[in-house]
């Protein structure tokens, strides 16, 4: 059964730049640059019939392209955890997230119970990763600010768990409308 999620892709140069900030130490596994993305909604494992229904309902979303601004970093979890770069929750991003939630609910996907915390996962850290090094990285990059980019599509990804980590494959990309010139996002 496919394991699905919906996300915005990250420009390769930005992903590489963010990943270059990470410490290169045992126990810190960087996300592959091609897989750095902003998850809008995790769906989980579904059968092919439900995957087709999800695909069809996502195609009905009419949303504007999303300006994405990466700012700050943080960490989820203790003793290892996840190192991430934050994404400013601007109105077009929140509107797209809301539209996705409604569309997925219409396709029979259970609503998300956790609050939306937009971020880019940069690394997964083992419990034995050097705690002082992780704290230093967060402190050193807390004020990180990157130029904005415009996400012109969102993607339904299929994630396949492999021994070396997850492998993500685009099932379908959905275009977002260009913002009106008189009313930029």
From TrEMBL:
Membrane-spanning parts: none
Location of the motif HXTX 1: 37-40
Keywords for this protein: Hydrolase
Reaction catalysed by this enzyme: a 3'-end 2',3'-cyclophospho-ribonucleotide-RNA + H2O = a 3'-end 2'-phospho-ribonucleotide-RNA + H(+)
GO molecular function: 2',3'-cyclic-nucleotide 3'-phosphodiesterase activity; RNA 2',3'-cyclic 3'-phosphodiesterase activity
Superkingdom, taxonomy of origin: Bacteria
EC number: 3.1.4.58
Keyword Hydrolase: yes
Keyword Nucleotidyltransferase attached: no
Residues at the catalytic site: 37 (proton donor), 119 (proton acceptor)
Gene3D superfamilies cross-referenced by the UniProt entry: Cyclic phosphodiesterase
Motif HXTX 2: where in chain: 119-122
Recorded family membership: Belongs to the 2H phosphoesterase superfamily. ThpR family.
Role noted for this protein: Hydrolyzes RNA 2',3'-cyclic phosphodiester to an RNA 2'-phosphomonoester.
UniProt name for this protein: RNA 2',3'-cyclic phosphodiesterase
Originating organism: Cupriavidus cauae
Organism taxonomic ancestry: Bacteria, Pseudomonadati, Pseudomonadota, Betaproteobacteria, Burkholderiales
Gene: thpR
